Amino acid sequence: MLGTKSKVVPKKLIPEMVTDSRFITLKVFEIERSWAFAMKLNSEAYTEPRKRFHMASRLTKAARSADQLADLTSHLNCDAQTMLELQAYIHWIHGIRYFEKKDWPHAKYRLESAQAIYEGLLKIIEKDMRSVYEYRVSELLPRIRYCAHNIGDASAASDLMKMRSSDKELGIEKNIRTTGAKLGVLEQRDLDNLLSQVMASQAQSITEVQWLGHTIPVKLEHARLALNSLKEMDAELAGLTDPVSRLAIHEANLKVCVEAISAVRDELNALTAAELAATAAATTGDIRTLTKPNRSRLMNSNSDQQADLNKLPRIRLLYTYLQYLKLSKTFSRNLIHVEVALSPRMSLVGKESMQTDEINLKTESLNSKKDSSVLIASSSHAKPQELARLYDSLVQTLQEIAAIPGVFQEHRDIDYLQTKLMAYRCFRYVYICDSHG
């Protein structure tokens, strides 16, 4: 160390001093220490915003040390792989600094440079080491796509959404930095904000839906967001075969449906109350029976009141449609539970259609009591009572769908719906009989 009693000046590391690889390790350790402290400050900055200034200074110090490392190694006789790894590491440090400064073009350039080097190394290194470089590439991708979105790339947000959902399926959302998830060190709140903005902009394009020959206008913001989320998740569901992943998507679908139904119900209740108040006032001729909001609405203009009351049929139809969607998603989820509960012959890895295999297996069980016992023995559920309960839930859901106003009268595949109801009742009876010996 150099300097005075009041100030310490570290000794500058020059190429002539480097006689061992540990000198390089010390410099890398210095960079990592500054970076780690910056990430700690970044996590605390949400509650203490002033810490972002300290974080920026630590990242600047890390980038300065990285430049010194680059200058140092340029005068050393290092092998090609080491030089490439150092260049990628230095690009990454600078990319993180620009990313936190929200300098998206420079951050994207630096991170893509690091990604290109790591992908090049993947082609030449031994297989035992490839997982390390694959992890680094997967860690860089979300930041690159985030930068691209902020620059103006419309496809970047959908890529981020896919990365986010794939990480959720693996259950690695709790500790983003240390698990090696695709989200890497990208701040979860930033990603959530981005995805919320994208979904809101996409939801603006949904103005109406077609159901049972009716055109239903969708004016409520919650309903538009819910329908857009369901559309996105259904598209994602089409490419999945693993039952666990499909169940996770169905659970998310059901949560979205419940929230949308609650919002529409609140609007429906408000309009119904206004209708009852207006009817009472018209019948008695006494405006004092109205509440203050309804009184002002009535006094402003009859046409405005009529426009509000005309919303009721549309809101009721939208409410019914969302209930239908919720029951349909519940039915699909229960089908997957049945699929998992059945024999290993069934599509635990998504090789065949569940419905086709199910009918074939159950036909065999109806033909022979012995075949039925074999089927139950090979199930992941030891007891036939469990399968009977699952089929009972399918029957109840179908009955609730059939009880929705207008479904039996206007459903195009009503015969198919009745046939499914009868079939699942038969499946339930089979397992009830098996459970009683």
UniProtKB/TrEMBL annotation:
GO biological process: SRP-dependent cotranslational protein targeting to membrane
Location within or outside the cell: Cytoplasm; Nucleus, Nucleolus
Molecular function as annotated in GO: 7S RNA binding; endoplasmic reticulum signal peptide binding; signal recognition particle binding
Gene3D superfamilies: Signal recognition particle, SRP68 subunit, RNA-binding domain
Keyword Nucleus belongs to the record: yes
Any one cellular-component term (Gene Ontology): signal recognition particle, endoplasmic reticulum targeting
Leader peptide range in chain numbering: none
UniProt keywords, alphabetically: Cytoplasm, Nucleus, Ribonucleoprotein, RNA-binding, Signal recognition particle
Record has Lyase as a keyword: no
Primary residence: cytoplasm
Xref: InterPro entries: SRP68, SRP68_N_sf
Annotated family: Belongs to the SRP68 family.
PANTHER family according to UniProt: SIGNAL RECOGNITION PARTICLE 68 KDA PROTEIN (PTHR12860), SIGNAL RECOGNITION PARTICLE SUBUNIT SRP68 (PTHR12860:SF0)
Protein known as: Signal recognition particle subunit SRP68
Species in which this protein is naturally found: Protopolystoma xenopodis
